[in-house]
Amino acid sequence: MSGVVPPTRMNQQVFKMKKKAAESGHRLLKKKADALKVKFRDYAKAIADTKSSMASDSSSAFFSLTQAEYAAGNFKQKVSEGSMTARIRVGAGIDNVAGVKLPVFTYFETGAATDNASLGLVGGGKKIQVVREKYTNLLQNLIKLASLQTSFVTLDEAMKITNRRVNALENVTIPKIQAVLDYIDRELDELEREDFTRLKLVQGKKEAAIEEERKEKEAEYAANVAKGVSVTKESDADITAEYDAGDDADVVF
């Protein structure tokens, strides 16, 4: 990559901006990964607590069903003959965690009338009511667990993607950009040294030419003096300094 990029000042500025953007993105993704990790641990803890409570809730619900069947007889047939209108439904929502949309399931009652309200009039009505309450509580826990598990899986996948991006920026993209910048800096330094050396050579040649010209003039002057030829030595003084521009009359055209 560094061999393709021309080592110019413009490319140096471009890659500096790229490095700055990559470092900024790396910081933001790192913060996002940390936030997802905290939420991930919270979900894992909530799932463990819900599963541990469901073990006792499910055993209690099934045991209460056995007690109700013993007290009121086998009432499952009467329940299945009802209208079977749902009193409880599951609502779906979205929870946004650091830009990651997590599905959330909620429990809500439809307000429908309870079927088979006459169950247990002969006997066992209290036990049937206990069964209804325990199974309602168990259903709430099941919906909560389903929401937690689904969000947990989605969050785990988002964490993997975010961590891959963080590692790619940290170990691939930023080092490549830095390598290009180092290459450009080396080449520009080398060009500056070459320009400095070239200027020194040009300046040295000019000074040598001036010195040689001065020596030739001095030799010529000495030869003319030796021959008795009257020669006025050239002066470096400005001849126009002897004249005053204010002494000249204005010229009218």
Our measurement of the CA-to-CA distance between the termini, rounded to an integer number of angstroms, reads 70 Å
Most strands sheet: 2 strands, antiparallel
Portion of residues in beta strands equals 5-15%
Measured on Cα atoms, how large is the radius of gyration?
A: 47 Å
Q: Classify the oligomer.
A: single chain
Strand order of the largest sheet: 1-2
User: Could you say which overall geometry the principal axes of the C-alpha atoms support?
Assistant: rod-shaped
Helical percent range? 55-70%
Structure description:
The chain is mostly helical. 68% of the residues lie in helices and 8% in strands. The chain has three helices and two strands; from the N terminus they run ααββα. The chain has a two-stranded antiparallel sheet with strand order 1-2. The relative contact order is 0.13. The mean pLDDT is 79.
